[in-house]
Amino acid sequence: MEGRRQRQSQELLQQQVVALSDENLSRIFELIESSQERATLSLVCRQWHRVDGNTRKNISIANMYAVAPTALTRRFKCLEGIKLKGKPRAAEYDLLLPEWGGYAYPWLKELATTYEHLKTLQLRRVEVRNADLYLLAAAPFNATLQVLHLHKCSGFTTSGLVPLSRTCR
Question: Which of 26, 62, 87, 112 would bridge 125 by S-S if both were Cys, CB 3.0 to 4.6 A apart?
Answer without folding.
Answer: 87
